[in-house]
Amino acid sequence: MSHTVQLGVFMPVFNNGWIISKNAPQFMPNWEMNQRIGRYAESIGFDFLFSAVKWRGFDGETQHWNHTLEPVTEMSAIAAVTSRIKIIASMVPLYLHPVVAAKMVATIDDISDGRFGVNLVSGTYFGEFAQMGILPDDYATTRYDRLQEWLDIVNLAWTEERVTYKGKYWQLEDCQCSPKPIQKPRPLLVCAGMSERGMDFTAKNADMNFLAGKNFGDLTAVALQSKAVSSRVGKLNETATVLVIIIADTDEAAEAEVQYYRDGVDVAGWQNLTQVYAEDSDGKMAQALLEQAKNDVFYAALPVYGSPKTVAEKLAKIALDGQIDALLLTFPDYMEGLRRMDLEVKPEMERLGIQFSTTTTTSAGMGQ
After folding, report:
1. Segment 331-354 mean pLDDT
2. pTM for the whole thing?
């Protein structure tokens, strides 16, 4: 049995990445690091780079995610220093007018020569919006209605010369937005829809659904459910998931590294994070994270660790069991993790029936 997957990098635009631990590598996000990772990922055949959005961190001893880069501006710069790899940046419709967003996307699509995509973010951390004074009282129940109207306007701005629109949340009168994006019929759209409403919205409006689970079995079930929902609306949307990859020489060394991170868990950071989800979220994503947070340090991404052979076997199983189309990877040490992924893990995955959508020569220089 074979299956083709795309490989993506979840870019480190947040301090300290995805491990909430005092013992994990501590780093601040910056341009030099991100462009180096992006260019290297492109050189070894990765398919896409993904950048999330965050406006308020979780404090704790590590100040987890208190320091973040704005994803659209960061990824537009990375688009200018890469040539093949797809670029995906997160946008929050609540604080971004749809015509402004449409123009921004068209601009970056031009910079990237048709490689730009958008991850639509409707919520999860409502406190981020409240601190700015822009959180509507009914947002928890209306966020997908608002997102649908916002996206309808964006699509019109990408395709029509003049747009007049009378909606509940936005009104346009003979509005012009040119030039249009290079990609036709439109740029790639991504959404993380885990609830029933979220899956339905993503199936109808987007091309890819980012999914999570409290364990690998749960992830497989959610991925297959997402495929079924998109099939019911007459589409075949892709699925993706976020994973923390830890590659060591042996399984024992990898387990020791993971235990070291767990021994240094930032308890206050985790408590603050789970409190945010308890107050602001509903659906499967929130429940999965709350369950995971009880005894782990890996936030919003399942850990995959072991020797190169073991990591390859686990990744192949995840992709094959859930028919997952894209693996979005993060690493404690991005450059070293990407190097070992390229040289040691990918060949093992190919022997297990995994095909990669992009093929390039391995062992590209890490200094690129």
Report:
1. 97
2. 0.92
